[in-house]
Amino acid sequence: MPHSGVRLSLKDEDEWEEYFNSYKSDLTALQDEIARTDAEINSAVYALYGLTLEEIGTVEEK
Asked: Quick check: 61 and 51 in contact, CB under 8 A?
């Protein structure tokens, strides 16, 4: 990708980096929450259908 030639001051770079890191942290927290919720749903479904550990292992193989 060609460089646009836009130059940021060190202050602006710091502000953008702070914004990026904050946004990245928020996204990581959401991904973690989604993974936990997904695991809870899976556990509830496995219990609902009375799956054995062997059956759960088969289902979770990807």
From this structure: no
How many other β-carbons are positioned within 10 Å of the β-carbon of residue 9?
8
DSSP state of 6: -
Sign of the Cα torsion 31, 33, 36, 37 reads negative
Task: Quick: pLDDT tens for 19-54.
Answer: 999 999 999 999 999 999 999 999 999 999 999 999
Statement: the pTM of the whole predicted model exceeds 0.85: no
Q: Are 16 and 8 in contact (CB under 8 A)?
A: yes
